Amino acid sequence: MNKVYKNAKEALAGVESGMTLMLGGFGLCGIPENCIAELMELGLTDLTCISNNAGVDDFGLGLLLQKRQIKKMISSYVGENDEFERQMLSGELEVDLIPQGSLAERCRAGGAGIPAFFTPAGYGTEVAEGKEVRFFNGKAHILEHALEADFAFVKAWKGDRYGNLIYKGTARNFNPVMATAGKITVAEVEELVEPGELDPYFIHTPGVFVQRIFQGSNYEKRIEQRTVRTK
């Protein structure tokens, strides 16, 4: 039951080139910074990364893009990363752009054991090309398949050694659904506590979904676009 690992290096044991990885976060909020840094250090290649976005040029998944470690991105929003745009337009990077809600539901479905579902999102656009269409209540829906990963990397505020997680504010974002959809889920937390210290009524991800957990360090928590109110 003790799932605690010393650091990211130990927690990422078994991650190999060519694998499919899920990474929580929204923009730079709630991303598994330590896991991404270790992936870069390992120098793995031909990775398929499932993430809402690809970070920025010099942070988050942008670091892996700079080193050409990612072969394919399955994501929703990519507007903050010039290197991503360059690789996509040049054909160096394979990209599967998915409506944001569909991406979240495909991850959730993967964790719930639902192989596919119908959604109206994307019908009549390039997103629907080659996909089965059915009508429900007179409205067209397209078939989307669940997403799963060899490893899922998530970032939480607090966790215990059983893998129970609590996220803080908007840093929750994609982390809970991705935590359920990895064959092996690695959670990095800001604070690792003893069992019983977390209020069971406020657990966001039950430990049954988490195989490895470690306390991260040196978090930058960058802000993509800092906006302040005028006086």
From TrEMBL:
Q: Does the keyword Transferase apply?
A: yes
- Output the Gene3D superfamilies linked to this UniProt entry: Glutaconate Coenzyme A-transferase
Question: Which GO MF terms are attached to this record?
Answer: CoA-transferase activity
Domain of life assignment: Bacteria
Q: Which InterPro entries match?
A: 3-oxoacid_CoA-transf_A, CoA_trans_fam_I, NagB/RpiA_transferase-like
Q: Which of UniProt's keywords are assigned here?
A: Transferase
Q: What Pfam families would the database entry show? A: CoA_trans (PF01144)
Matching entries from SUPFAM superfamilies are given as: NagB/RpiA/CoA transferase-like
Protein name as annotated = Succinyl-CoA--3-ketoacid-CoA transferase
